[in-house]
Amino acid sequence: MLIAQISDCHLTKDNACDERGVDRLAQLQRAVDFLQEQWPELDAVVVSGDVSDDGTAASYAQAKDALAHLPCPAFVLPGNHDLREPMRTAFAAQGYLPAQGPLCYAQRIGDLQIVALDSLEEGQVAGVFCEQQATWLEGQLKASAETPTLVFVHHPPFATGLTGVDEICLREGRERFWEVLAPHPQVLGVASGHIHHAMSAVHHRTAGALLVSTCQGLACQFHHDLIGDAMGGASIDPLALRLFKYADGQLSAHLRSL
Ligand SMILES: [Fe+2]
Predict the structure, then answer these.
(1) Which CATH class is domain 2-257?
(2) Contact 33, 66 (CB under 8 A)
(3) pTM across the whole model
């Protein structure tokens, strides 16, 4: 099984280039072309939030059109720059988003289940994991105890190892999130976006260790100083995406430059 993660496209209604002259739609199309050409055997692609920068219907229409060229199903989840209702409307025809409430869903992809959470609190940079989602996730994991699962949530619900970053990640409900995951060894990984930087770590919970990771941003990469406390400037890291491979009961995470 091969699942690709792309993140933080930050599309805008008029596809305006950012202050560095980056054409964000072109970056997304480049990622789609790369996956189509290099990985035709892909099972699914997940866009882990900040699909849009301005929450407009036009930006979601651009994303939908670009993702339609993938060789496999694509799934989106909201980030702090997204707006829930325009996103729900734009991707309604794909059938995986709920008609109301948080944009959480579970999808069986061959041997694997992907679970997407909605950590968006509109108008806020940091994310939340609310009780409504906790109840839903608990029920979902109990009902799929035998299915290896990869959870996607825009705001990292784990320590990133980066100074100053964790306070803008999953701010509310982090303990509750891990309380829900604690008894479920079938959850093999938690994958996030938001920090426009790729990291991975081992996280320990009652049911054993699992892989936690983030992904590069397609719109831009942030520089995070691993020693001091500088953060937020532009990085020279290459544009990249993640590939998750699941084989022989093991989940592994890989980075691929575009
Ligand atoms: Fe972002």
Answers:
(1) alpha beta
(2) no
(3) 0.96
